[in-house]
Specification:
Number of helices: 5
CATH topology: Nuclear Transport Factor 2, Chain: A
Strand content: 35-45%
CATH class: Alpha Beta
Number of strands: 6
CATH architecture: Roll
Shape: globular
Amino acid sequence: MNDSRDIAALIEKDRLTQLIHEFGWGLDSGDWDLYRACLCDRVRIDFERLTGFPEVEVAADDWTDFARHALAPVRRHHAYSNIQITLDGHRAKARVHMTARHFLPSDNGAAHNTQYGWYDFDFVLMSQGWKIAGVRHWFQWVSGNVGLFDFSREPVASAVARVFDPSRMVKQ
């Protein structure tokens, strides 16, 4: 056991936890500059359960634009728990349980949509600190109205076309 290494690991895990919370605060508050600042310039995104599209690697600016347009109509609240972080030098991974609540008054069903599941994050330590290199959004179940998210309307549809272009799919 090496106390100085243990302390250094705790500090890095705290920095990563803070980054995860900034990611969520950017989403919930609509602070898209903060949200974008959490990401590497290119980021792997796997939101297949939500969007129906397979994992892609995209410019973080395009992903942020998609998130901004997709979430603009709804009020949102993400709560994170059970944060499990694994450090590996200049890389790290985290699994984070999440409850993502969304609200939008609707004439077509419930005014809420809640997703229960987790995020898997991949991180890279860069000169300016830790950044998110990959995000997998994986929910176990959803309650409420899935129709609150309409990816076919503009400007979301244009953002979808940029982000989920088949040329950006990650080859497995």
